[in-house]
Amino acid sequence: MGGSFSSRPPPPSPLLSAPWRRINWSDNHSTLQYVKAYQPETEDQVIRILLHGLVGSGKSSFINSVESVLRNRMCIPALVGNATQDCFTREVNPNAKISKDDRFYKPTPSANDKVHVLVFVIDANKWSLMNEKALEALDDIRDEAKLLDIPQVAILTKIDEVCPEIQKDIKNVYKSKELKEKMEKVSGAVGVPMNCIFPVKNYSKELDLDSDTDALILSALKPILDFGNDHLNKRYA
């Protein structure tokens, strides 16, 4: 008896053959030293970074993660909320702008009172679930920042929940086809170019630091400082 059979082709790989963006996974030291040593060119000046995002997007966790990397140990200086709790970080409300009668209103703000870089913190796993009202709020804040010529950056959090391959090995972050598609959608919807969008994995369950997780956090932190510094120097030009 003769017979034949057909085999199904293997499913397409969720990973690209090569990363579309490269970062140095083996040398966190130089970037860490750069960040730690950074000082604005003007004495007594500080860079103010405004984090904006929905409740549970990972703002507080990002602050904690950055602090942990800088101190080389786990830190929890900012309390972390979630979608069912009050948020422990506060953000501006574009629909309720500060009035001249408010005690925090400053008619002639100094450079230290102003925002120098705006960072959108977006949950990569829930991006598609953002409603129209949330997107409109992002647009309103983007427009205000644009009028003030404030540079804008986006941080994509919880990337390990997007792609199992990233969960297996965080170094697959720039090989993941799904994450790249999400970043492209975020870029189109929020208006932040791809080279200003940085995927990160915040520390949330871990007890110890991980050098690859640190590398992603540092690769986001350095350009945030650079963009803020550029904006600050424009003010003094």
What's the helix and strand layout?
Blueprint: H1 28-37, E1 49-52, H2 59-71, E2 117-123, H3 132-147, E3 152-157, H4 164-168, H5 177-190, E4 197-199, H6 211-236
Helix pairs in contact: 1-6, 2-6
Protein model, in words:
This protein has helices spanning 28-37, 59-71, 132-147, 164-168, 177-190, 211-236; strands at 49-52, 117-123, 152-157, 197-199. With 237 residues, the protein is α/β, with parallel strands linked by helices. It has one domain: Rossmann fold. Helix 1 (28-37) runs parallel beside helix 6 (211-236) and helix 2 (59-71) packs across helix 6. The longest helix has 26 residues, at 211-236. Residues 83-88 have low confidence and may be disordered.
Order of helices and strands: HEHEHEHHEH
The DSSP helix count reads 6
Major sheet summary line? 4 strands, parallel
- The number of strands is 4
Number of domains: 1
Strand content: 5-15%
**SS class:** alpha/beta
- What is the CATH topology descriptor? Rossmann fold
Strand order of the largest sheet: 1-2-3-4
Uncertain regions spanning at least 5 consecutive residues: 83-88
Give the overall pLDDT as a whole number. Answer: 86
- What's the alpha carbon Rg, rounded to whole Å? 20 Å
Overall form: globular
Name the descriptors:
4 strands; Rossmann fold; 237 residues; 35% helix; globular; four-stranded parallel β-sheet; alpha/beta; 6 helices; 8% strand
